[in-house]
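Margin note from the TA: students keep mixing up input and output lines. Inputs are the sequences; the output is the structure of the whole complex. Example:
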Amino acid sequence: MPTDTDTLPVRDSRESLQAKRNNQIARSLGWTVLLIVSLMMLVPFVWMLLTSLKTEAEIARGGGILPEEWRWQNFPDALRAAPFHIYARNSLIIAFSHTLITLVYASAAGYALAKLRFGGARWLFFGFLAAMMIPSYATIVPQFLMVRYMPLFGGNNILGQGGSGWIDTWWALIIPGGVSAFSVFLFRQFFTGVPTELMEAARIDGVSEIGIFFRIAAPQVVPAFLTAGLLVFESSWNNFLWPLLVTRRQELRVIQVGLAGFRQDSTADWSLMMAGTAMATLPMIVLFLLAQRYFIQGFANVGIK
Amino acid sequence: MSTTPGTPETLGAPLLADAPAGKAPAASPRPGKLLRKERRAGWLLVAPAALHIGLWVGVPLVVAIILSFTRYDLPRSPTFNGIQNYVDAFSQEPFRKAILNTFIMTGVAVPVSMFLAISIAVLLNMGLKGQAFFRTAVFMPHITATVAIAVVWLWIYNPDAGGLFNRIIGTFNLGPLSWLGSPDMALGSVILVLIWQGIGIKMLIYLAALQGLPTDVVEAAKIDGANAWRRFWHITVPLLRPATFFVLVTSIISSFQVFDQIFILTSGGPANATTVITYQIYLSAFEASRMGYASAQSVVLFLFLIVLAIVSRRVVGGTDAH
């Protein structure tokens, strides 16, 4: 018996030493794998930036990985070849509008669904959930027809005939995608976590229902506003097909459509193309790096709650 | 899912003038006037979003289903033609090929990127040095515009010797290959882009789920002497089942809606080798102006997704949490 108790700790520590060493190996292995994977994920971005700084001649020749001569002039040249600043301005206007409409509409709806008792709330909630599941390609044809035949716009008569409706207008770019069911759902998730006692107390104090929403509930979910706002802004900036369908005029082109057009109608060389692509991606990458916490909260939230 | 608004007792509350407040514990009986105000505020606040989404999602869905039974070649008006559009869709080659390609794309890209995502998430959950950088790097493709990404990949896949991939295989004296131009390789090349772009969001959802797991179960298994691999397969993976169901369904939905990459990389070619359902909808509606036919194709897309969501639930066995 005594020998048992004597030997046990020794064996134990030897085993734990072994385990520790195994653990150490596993960790370094894991770290190495992560490093390789991360670098592979970043290669296209690095290649984009490196190409955007090379001369046309160097690309034609093949050349090395790094530019022989760092040609920053490609960026102004790309702007001269296609008005990326106008495309970016249009995308910013649309992204800000979508964000603003969403923050107002979706926060109000999300709050009502999470905290107010009214008949039909449950059905409405299921409605929003169902709308989230509907693929946008299942509705895009009628959406286009609604925009095209919008009565009394763009020369259309009351029946939507005769003109072009909302085609080639800001209305078409901003209104149909104004609010997503997803953002309503996101706000509802956040508002559910706010203690109901806060609202009850305000009610007893005689604060109006709308006042409770604006002054009591909304300040409790500031992260929700940041998260939803950033997600909407990002998806709006990255949107492609809808703006492609509803605009023809160059002045209304958004950044992604402009980039696709730049590829199609110019014989621009790859350095200018990559400079344009960098201009279309860098704003969102910078925004993401600055506000990563809120983006991640938003994306992860959908999955776990 | 936490308490939904309008659980039976709260729905019933407005009917009883002096019913105790549904959620607030120990609240005093609430007078009917306040309840009426609350009800009115509820409708007022939910109305703008509900009307907007009803108008721009609900109505179009119904209209798409109706139009799918018509011949509607702009600028002519729609005329009823029964199930002809569906018969055409399933008998005409480009659309059949598109269905096949969509299923191949989804069948390859979704499982592969899910496997990679869960592996990376587990590694990221080990508390290693520099994990914030790794997480950002893996997630970055998700945040970037698909159009811009596709233009970059177009350059990487450039068929001359100057394209990055041809440079790489060139060092082994191989190639140059026409990555997107040859019918045998194009779909695979597109799938590679989708995997690269799809890992990030799946990884993030898995990582969030991993961080929410009860650590005591894993610790108990460690004491029982289960090795890391067994712990992963027999404890972590089953515990992640709700996350897996969620990731699977959302990944299938987004994989069925891939469009931008196809538009930029291949325009569905060569010889329809990479065409997908969404690309055919685009061509029918906006190149050929066949709105009825395009509507039928979009209804087919929707039905496929409903069936796949049900099948996923059967296979993975998602919990009621979703």
